[in-house]
Design a protein that fits this description.
alpha+beta; outer membrane lipoprotein receptor (LolB), chain A; Glutaredoxin; 2 domains; 12-stranded mixed sheet; 5-stranded mixed sheet; 7 helices; elongated
């Protein structure tokens, strides 16, 4: 038995050694594949005399989408122009060969310094915060800095995991995945036939949020030096460093608690028209309106209508239950200031106030006071009663 145990231990150790060897070999192959790919990509950008790129920047959270246009141009030895035009990320960076100017267009502030003597080895975007990995990486390639261990983005790129080729429209692309910063991870798509960076996506919480797509890439065209200049807008303020890009926070999902301890999640109501009516129990107009709402609910709840009453004045569960029972209500009746403060969200000052969400979850109607005719028209336009 002891001999068998020693043989078993030896077999186990051999298996572990083989696993470690296989893992080490796989890591080495991954590093080799990554290095080869990045050398090919870098060669395209570093060797060009000039480059002009056009693309789009999109940020999507739920139903809210914001867009910006991207235009990047560079010409050796040291001309550079980046324009990102959008409501959240508007930025211009211009090197005219003598001066490097960086402007936050929506803040109307700028920085100014001496331009680098050449792009190679320079760091045009140093200190310019941009949630745009594609622009950052292409600039890194133009400057020949993708292997610079001192550059934070180059360090992270150097640890990227490479997969593919995968389908990319009617083409094929390799995918490089890595941590972009503490908040986002990145996936970068490089087309296999020309080794160019075509798309970069930032993921937050495992979901894609920001995407850059480069639709036009031209090398070695004759670019006018006049295109590498930028007049500052009136009243622009010079600062020592650009303020960071502050993107609007992701909207929080609406959830409510009912007086009988049920939870209502508005995300789960997508696909329905939702009417929210704000009330308090002794409101005469609310009490006049609510029987009509109950009638609507009974008629159309099976064909795309949901109604939620929200108490707006912080009354007790017992008072709200007595009110709901007294009117024979079958639709949910929610407390306020439990999970989502909808009174504050919609700045409710008068009762009843009625808010209608369409089937995509967008607010299409809000009105204070009792207006049954207007509310019924808005419900019909939103598709209530239509399956």
């Amino acid at each position: 038995m002891k001999t068998t145990g020693r043989l078993g231990s030896a077999a186990c150790m051999a298996s572990i050694a083989l696993a470690v060897f296989a893992s080490t070999a796989a890591d080495a192959q991954q590093q080799l594949d990554r290095t080869r790919l990045l050398i090919r990509v870098s060669a395209n950008y570093r060797s060009c005399r000039s480059i002009r790129i056009e693309g789009t920047w999109t940020r999507k959270i739920g139903d809210k989408e914001t867009k910006a246009s991207i235009a990047l141009a560079a010409m050796r030895p040291n001309l550079y122009r980046l324009e990102i035009k959008g409501p959240d990320i508007g930025t211009d960076v211009v090197s005219d060969g003598r001066t490097l100017t960086a402007l936050r267009t929506h803040r109307n502030v700028y920085t100014r310094s001496a331009a680098p003597e050449q792009l190679i080895g320079g760091d045009i975007l140093k200190g310019i915060d941009l949630p745009a990995p594609g622009v950052q990486l292409i600039t890194l390639m133009l400057q020949g800095m993708w292997r610079d261990a001192r550059h934070p983005l180059a360090q992270r790129l150097g640890r990227a995991e490479v997969t593919g080729p995968v389908a990319f429209g009617d083409r094929q692309a390799y995918v490089l995945a890595f941590d972009y910063n503490a908040d986002y991870s990145a996936r970068v798509y490089v087309t296999t036939d020309d080794n160019l960076l075509r798309r970069a996506t930032l993921y937050h919480g495992g979901k894609p949020e920001i995407t850059e797509t480069f639709t036009k890439v031209e090398f070695d065209k004759n670019l006018s030096p006049a295109g590498f200049s930028r007049e500052l807008p009136d009243a622009a303020l010079q600062v020592t460093s650009l303020p960071p890009v502050v993107l609007p926070a992701a909207p929080k999902p609406i959830t409510l608690k009912t007086y009988d301890d049920r939870t209502i999640s508005f995300d789960e109501l997508r696909g329905k028209v939702v009417l929210v009516t704000f009330f308090f129990t002794t409101c005469s107009y609310c009490n006049e309106e609510v029987p009509h709402l109950e009638d609507l609910y009974r008629r159309f709840k099976g064909s795309g209508l949901e109604i939620v009453a929200v108490n707006g004045t912080g009354e007790t569960k017992e008072a709200i239950k007595q009110w709901a029972d007294g009117h024979g209500l079958t639709f949910p009746v929610a407390l306020n200031k439990t999970t989502t403060d909808m009174v504050r969200m919609f700045t409710v000052h008068a009762y009843p106030t009625n808010v209608i969400f369409n089937k995509e979850g967008k607010v299409v109607y809000k009105k204070e006071g009792l207006d049954l005719e207007g509310m019924l028209k808005a419900l019909a336009e939103a598709g209530a009663g239509k399956s």
